[in-house]
Design goal:
single chain, 280 residues, four-stranded antiparallel sheet, globular
């Protein structure tokens, strides 16, 4: 499954290993957009990118996201503008803070069963006032048991607004985060009498993906982005869909198609790691 762009939608992620001020301006965002563009190869309907805003003020979104229909340059033009042809690009006001992001995910989506509308664009976002419960997802796959699971989702008091398996995946992830978040809150309250000596636990990402995926049946490559800046990138247990990882001195990146990584970072096949079945 190497070498050529495959007949799938594309997902990817990018993580900066150093402080953003040690990289060129907009470096992470533009690399994510370039990966997105390279996965545009069959006339997909939309593409998007999402990242954690580390300078977000209380009450403002911890994860920003941007999606655009049709050609890849539409997404770039949504984010950036030039005052004139010779001036440096600036980021548009609705997306201020994106230049500081160290964790990003991206997606190219080919419309199949879902309606071709902005509500169905990826990455999909679940917003919450607490960063640990804020989540975005890029999903390349097919939930074979989607129809069987809809009644169960509704019994849990959740409502599928778009009728897509992507939204179902997002709700599963949000539920998995809620479990750990509630446990963290209870533990923090139990140590309220000695706050100076209390060390809050880190989010257990392995447990998160196990809890979220326990009812999934299908083939997929998926990228989750959490408001804390943590990310999970994994493939399905049957290895129906591929996933590739690259780590350099400056970046950790992954994509559902290896050619995107090789082109953006100018590396060889031997520099990439292929994820095994169900590996994250």
């Amino acid at each position: 499954m190497r070498g050529e762009l495959q007949e799938n939608c594309g997902v990817g992620f990018l993580y900066l290993k150093k402080s953003p001020n040690q990289y060129p301006q907009f470096d992470a965002l533009k690399k994510a957009l370039y990966m997105n563009m390279l996965m545009y190869h069959r006339g997909e309907d939309s593409g998007g990118v999402a990242g954690v805003n580390p300078v977000a003020q209380f009450g403002t979104p911890r994860i920003w996201s941007a999606s655009a229909m049709d050609q890849p340059e539409n997404l770039h033009n949504l984010l950036f503008e030039k005052k004139d042809k010779d001036s440096q690009e600036i980021i548009l006001p609705p997306y201020h803070g994106m230049e500081f992001a160290t964790s990003l995910i991206c997606s190219r989506r080919y419309c199949t069963t879902a309606l071709n509308t902005p509500a169905n664009m990826q990455p999909m976002l679940y917003d919450h006032m607490r960063p640990v419960r804020t989540l975005a997802v890029s999903w390349n796959g097919n939930m074979a048991n989607y129809g069987e699971r809809v009644p169960d989702i509704q019994k849990r008091g959740l409502w599928l607004k778009t009728g897509t398996d992507t939204e179902m995946i997002l709700l599963d992830g949000a539920e998995a985060l809620k479990i750990q978040s509630d446990e963290m809150k209870a533990e923090r309250e139990a140590h309220s009498g000695d706050p100076l000596n209390y060390q809050p636990p880190d989010l257990d990402l392995g447990r998160f993906i196990r809890d979220a995926s326990k009812e999934w049946d299908g083939g997929y490559t998926i990228a989750f982005l959490i408001g804390t800046g943590d990310m999970v990138f994994c493939t399905d247990p049957h290895h129906i869909r591929p996933g590739w990882i690259l780590e350099t001195d400056d970046y950790i990146a992954g994509a559902s198609e290896d050619v995107a990584l090789r082109t953006v970072f100018q590396v060889k096949n031997r520099d990439l790691q292929c994820l095994g079945p169900g590996q994250a």
